[in-house]
Amino acid sequence: MRRIVQLSFAVLVTVLTVSMAVSVTAQSAKKSAAPAAAPVATEPVKTAGSRTAPITMEVWSDFQCPACRNLYLESIRPLMNDYVHTGKVFFVHRDMPLAIHAHARDAARFANAAAQINKFEKVAEALYFNQDAWAADGSRLESVVASVLSPSEMNRVRQNWKSQVVDTAIDQDISRGRQFRVSSTPTVVLTHRGRSMPLPGGVNYTLLRRVLDQMLSQ
Amino acid sequence: MTVEAITAAPEPVAAEKAQPSAALRWFLLVARLMLGGIFLYAVFAKINYPPGNFLSFDLGNWKLALDIFAIAVNGYGVLPDWAVMPVAYGVPMLETVLALLLISGIGLRWSATASSALLLFFFALMTRAYLLGMSIDCGCFGPGDTLSMKTLVRDGLLWLLSFSLACAAFRVHRLSPQRAQSPQRT
CB contact, 8 Å: B11 with chain A? Predict the structure, then answer.
């Protein structure tokens, strides 16, 4: 009789424990799955690739963040050739300038200002490549941006930089990130078949390829 | 008193009946089932894609799920590239074995000790990453489990549970009736 009681109790405890764990993570899974609809339409020039691609990859970045720089150089650049330009992945850049980086917001504003004249990719690349040069005190930020633009383009960027549109675009990215509980950079969010999955931290390109290939094979 | 009574060897002192308390036994039962259940859930979360609950469990995507777990493993930055996939596949296997041993109670002292060692190792890695300011996925219970103070406290408590279980298992073994029956050494 005692053994039956113990066995029954054993089953009950196991089921309760697993159920509790499931319900706790199901809530967080729901929260991360909830905004699984197609990405909010952004300025088209902060995106790359086809909107009808089976996978959408949103990357929340801070231009002053070294890990974001590594991700850009080691993963995003090869990704563009292998997956974005071949129509497999729709890439979306999202800004999330962190408070600990004094010049990150200004850098994001320059990038978004350049995005308004379809020069986002050039400026973003320049900002990441020359991060060491401008991140220390921000004094060389404008010159780094100007180095990849023509004088007339740079004038337009300077005008756009002052507008509210640029801040609104950045704030919209931050707000979208909150839906996925993005709190650090870089954070990659992959959306596939209506389900979104955040991957905080830098993502190794070899591993990212494995994941993308498996998703594409489904 | 007869001569026989005076010269007869003294009666051997009966071995004291040292048995573990009921509370200790119940703790042992509850703790191993809880810990085993949590390990089972951790395995499930690592091999299930898309992430969700038991009702949407899809074993067919286990490779994709483990590749995603490998990204979390790699995020800690302690393994060479060649070791990431073996560890990503090996950890759920180890957790499964531990879960089954804990739930069944077989070799409890050693399974509880092994789970304590494993959890302590994970906790040390997480603490290191947290102190270094790394923004990574914990990887403990599937993707989206970002490393934070909350995850540290959670895993620290898990280790505490496992360690307590190991201590209790050793104590019960020491107090078991079989050991009490062995003759007293004088």
Answer: no
Q: Say whether pLDDT at B126 is over 80.
A: yes
Contact A22/B53 with Cβ under 8 angstroms?
yes
Q: Is residue B29 in a domain?
A: no
pLDDT at residue A41 is higher than 60: no
ipTM reported for the complex surpasses 0.90:
no
Instruction: Return all residues near A17 (Cβ < 8 A) that are at least 6 apart.
Output: B33, B34, B37, B38, B41
User: Which domain CATH number covers A102?
Assistant: 3.40.30.10
Average pLDDT score, chain A: 86
**Is B183's pLDDT higher than 50?**
no
- The answer to whether A7 faces chain B, any CB pair under 8 Å, is no
Looking at chain A, the whole-number percentage of residues with pLDDT higher than 90 is 65
Stretch 15-74 of chain A: residues touching chain B, C-beta under 8 Å: 17-18, 21-23, 25-26, 28-29, 32-33, 67
User: A208, B71: Cβ pair inside 8 Å?
Assistant: yes
Domain tally, chain A: 1
> Using a CB-CB distance cutoff of 8 angstroms, which residues of chain B are in contact with residue A201?
75, 134-137
Which residues form the domain of B86? 47-177
Inter-chain residue contact B50 with A210, CB threshold 8 Å: no
pLDDT single digits (tens) B83-124: 999 999 999 999 999 999 999 999 999 999 999 999 999 999
Q: Give the full edge-to-edge strand order of the sheet including A55-61.
A: A47-48, A89-95, A55-61, A187-192, A195-200
Rounded to a whole number of angstroms, the distance from the CA of A203 to the nearest CA of chain B is 6
Burial class (CB in 10 A: 0-12, 13-18, 19+), B163: middle
- Containing domain of residue A174, as a range? 44-217
Residue B1 located in a structural domain: no
Within 90-119 of A, beta carbons closer than 8 Å to B belong to none
Across the range A110-131, mean pLDDT stands at: 94
